[in-house]
Amino acid sequence: MKSIAKIDPIIHSAIKKEINRQKTQLVMIASENYASSAVLEATGSVMTNKYAEGYPGRRYYAGCENFDTIENIAINRANELFSSNFSNVQPHSGTQANMAAYFSLVNVGSKIMSMSLDHGGHLSHGSSVNFSGKLYDFIHYGVDPETEQLDYDEIEKLAKKFTPDLIITGYTAYPREINFKRFKEISDEVESKLLVDMSHISGLIAGNSHSSPIDFADLVTSTTHKTLRGPRGAMALSNNESIIKKFNSGVFPNTQGGPMGHSITAKAVAFYEAIDSKFSDYAKQIVINSRTLAQSMENRGFKLVSNGTDTHMILVDLRTKSMSGMEAERYLKDVGIIVNKNTIPFDPNPPMITSGIRIGTAALTTRGLVAKDMDYIGDLIYKTLTYCDDNKMKSRILNEVKEFSESFPVPGIDT
Ligand code: DSN
């Protein structure tokens, strides 16, 4: 960062502090990860300089030949990675990918069925404060109150009653495997389309640690920076040519202008890394780590939503601890363990307070942590939340976390 240091010391100093934070804290936000050095280099490359509205071979600017090469490679690699026929690698974010998805699958005002936000859905799946909730007629399903897992028979009943034009599956705070085949059967039964937003689990799917939605969904959207470990951004996949054509128009010119060349380049690199067989080992380890952390916390008296996990995340129900998610997030942050407060199903607290925390293992798995480390972290979390008024204990844990965290390399900094 020699140039930044020279011309903009204030920003240089802020980035240096962030490097230190990412190295000395335990990053356990379920939607975060550490991109590789190669992905970071691509993100910081000259590809950021180029305008290339349009798609490969059909641009509105001259000089796009290298951009075309890169975007075509990214598209082909996405298809290879997820065994899809068609893909679009231009969406700037998951929400923008979902916006283009709605524009390509249904009409404004159409009926859409999705998981409610407080049961694990996403803002762009019909929240009233998001464009989706304003433009479409959403109805929400949730999880079963007993199992805290999807009840496919209930979802089927609701779908028959509501007859949506589109059903959405794929969540931000649901720790269990999703049965995409069952969703396809339900959507066929009510003659609706099926959209899968696999943002959280796309790395697990790429690494064969979660079943793939591609044979069942009309369209699949995903961010690229979560378990998939690419740059910030998004993508879409489909096996249906007419749907992907509509999606392409839904992205450009409908909702986006110039594509972000640096991000598309970094997506291409990330897909290349995920095609490598080592990525399957990574995905497998994420789930092993998550299950070990779940067990470690259950052994120490914590209640987990759905009593476990099949993915990269666990959701802790803090109601038995008489502590809110907001408080737990703060106590953990004070010792360098970074998680986020999260609503749990049927949460009595509002979203700014919540009764739960969401914890993910994708980022720490990238740094090389394995099962025994997760058991240790479970103990650190237990001690932090149990002795939250004991300042001596807190400062001891803070030092322990720092020393422990620094012993694992950070991509782009140490490797
Ligand atoms: N906000 C992201 C998450 O943390 O799950 C999803 O967009």
Provide the residue-averaged pLDDT. 97
CATH class group of the largest domain: Alpha Beta
Give the amount of beta strand, in percent. 5-15%
| CATH fold type of the largest domain | Aspartate Aminotransferase, domain 2
Strand segment tally: 15
Radius of gyration: 21 Å
Query: Could you tell me which ligands this complex binds, including any ions or cofactors?
Result: D-serine
Ranges with pLDDT <50 over ≥5 residues? none
Task: Note the gap between the termini.
Answer: 16 Å
Proper CATH architecture of the largest domain: 3-Layer(aba) Sandwich
Q: Give me the secondary-structure category.
A: alpha/beta
Shape: globular
Spatial order of the strands forming the largest sheet: 4-10-9-8-7-5-6
Main pleated-sheet profile: 7 strands, mixed
Q: Helix tally?
A: 16
The helix content is: 40-55%
Number of domains: 2
Describe this structure in words.
There is one protein chain. The chain is an alpha/beta fold and 415 residues long. Helix content is 46%, strand content 13%. The protein has 2 domains: 152 residues, Aspartate Aminotransferase, domain 1; 236 residues, Type I PLP-dependent aspartate aminotransferase-like (Major domain) (Aspartate Aminotransferase, domain 2), CATH 3.40.640.10. The protein has a 7-stranded mixed β-sheet with strand order 4-10-9-8-7-5-6, sandwiched between helices. A 4-stranded antiparallel β-sheet has the order 11-12-15-14. The chain has a two-stranded parallel ribbon with strand order 1-13. A hairpin with an 8-residue loop joins strand 11 and strand 12. Helix 4 runs parallel beside helix 11 and helix 12 packs parallel to helix 15. Bound molecules: D-serine.
